[in-house]
């Protein structure tokens, strides 16, 4: 047993490379808490999570004041026990976004430490089910872009070997249909077009729009309704043959269980940074497998590529580059497919000098 002897935290604020606008918001920054956990043998694991522009200082305070002090002296390999103990420790704020994001930063660091210590890449330590995963791109499908730009990006992605793209929806219905139709005409029938409403619709509008989108052969309709409206998703799923995708705004494995039991979704988009880490992510992915439902996680491609390769029912990795400024090199892509790293650990090549330069003032703390 090697006990945890030190934890370090820092936060960087990553600005998107391109303007990102969806039906409900514009993304101006990604607050990224980074946790480093070191055991008595001197082995260090690095983990992280994120917020979209707000909440980062609250996550950092929870890490510094409550969660990280509670793991000093613990066996770093007891990841499941630590995750459950920390979840109970914060039961007054669980299930909640701030707590789940903080837990994710610790849990991913512990998985990294374990993988490094065992000399295994995450995708093999966690299952080793697939060699690579198809990629689709979201980075050129934002709602503010005009149709010509959507078409150009989709054609470029297709030429680069990607298998699909995602378009944000939420303009007037006739505009959405025209935009999707233009991309479909340009890329042909074999290229997947996914759509994402970012929880913008109510049930009747989602049913109406799904009927129109269906004629354009979309691959799925993502987050059509508020994430807590399970019954609305049931109604929608019964009214359309378009696959309904949910998950980026769910923060508990139990919420995913409810969706799966009700057959309220047919694509699960569990996000390791929002579900509370790798430990619950794997639970959700395997639970979805038991329901014969595919996993296509939201965001965090640099980490999700390894997790997708670990499970048999992962179908897609979403291409949105965001860690380039704080990594030495990005995710490996071959013929439009995401390839997990064979380096021990999470497979993320952190640039710690860049992280130090970009650290939010006052965010660096050490807990012993």
User: What is the global morphology?
Assistant: globular
Residue stretches low in confidence (pLDDT < 50, at least 5 long) are none
Major sheet, described briefly? 10 strands, mixed
Structural class, from secondary structure content? alpha/beta
Radius of gyration: 20 Å
Briefly note the CATH topology name of the largest domain. Answer: TIM Barrel
Number of helices: 13
Q: Using the 3D structure, state the CATH architecture of the largest domain.
A: Alpha-Beta Barrel
The count of β-strands is 18
What would the average pLDDT be, to the nearest integer? 96
Nutshell version of this structure?
By secondary structure, the chain is α/β, with parallel strands linked by helices. Helices cover 39% and strands 19% of the residues.
């Amino acid at each position: 047993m090697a006990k945890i002897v030190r934890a370090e935290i820092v936060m960087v604020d990553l600005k998107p490379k391109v303007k990102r606008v969806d039906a409900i918001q514009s993304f101006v920054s990604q607050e990224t808490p980074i946790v480093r956990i070191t055991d008595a043998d001197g082995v260090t694991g690095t983990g992280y999570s994120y917020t979209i522009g707000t909440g980062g200082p609250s996550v950092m305070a929870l890490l510094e004041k409550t969660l990280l002090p509670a793991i000093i002296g613990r066996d770093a390999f007891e990841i499941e026990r630590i995750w459950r103990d920390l979840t109970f420790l914060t039961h007054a704020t669980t299930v909640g976004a701030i707590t789940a994001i903080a837990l994710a930063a610790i849990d991913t660091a512990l998985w990294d430490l374990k993988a490094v210590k065992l000399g295994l890449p995450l995708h093999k330590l966690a299952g080793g089910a697939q060699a690579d995963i198809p990629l689709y791109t979201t980075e050129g499908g934002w709602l503010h872009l005009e149709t010509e730009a959507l078409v150009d990006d989709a054609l470029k992605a297709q030429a680069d070997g990607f298998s699909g793209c995602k378009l944000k929806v939420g303009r007037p219905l006739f505009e959405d249909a025209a935009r999707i139709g233009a991309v479909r005409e340009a890329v042909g029938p074999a290229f997947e077009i996914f759509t994402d409403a970012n929880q913008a619709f109510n049930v009747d509008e989602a049913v109406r729009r799904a009927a129109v989108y269906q004629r354009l052969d979309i691959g799925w309709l993502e987050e059509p309704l508020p994430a807590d409206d399970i019954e609305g998703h049931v109604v929608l799923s019964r009214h359309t043959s378009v696959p309904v995708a949910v998950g980026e705004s769910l923060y508990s494995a139990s919420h995913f269980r409810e969706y799966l039991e009700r057959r309220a979704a047919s694509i699960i988009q569990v996000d390791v940074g929002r579900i509370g880490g790798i430990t619950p992510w794997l639970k959700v992915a395997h639970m979805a497998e038991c329901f014969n439902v595919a996993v296509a996680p939201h965001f965090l491609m640099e980490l999700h590529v390894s997790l997708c390769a670990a499970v048999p029912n992962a179908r897609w990795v979403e291409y949105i580059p965001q860690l380039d400024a704080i990594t030495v090199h990005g995710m490996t892509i071959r013929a439009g497919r995401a390839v997990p790293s064979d380096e021990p650990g999470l497979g993320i090549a952190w640039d710690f000098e860049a992280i130090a330069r970009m650290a939010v003032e006052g965010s660096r703390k050490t807990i012993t």
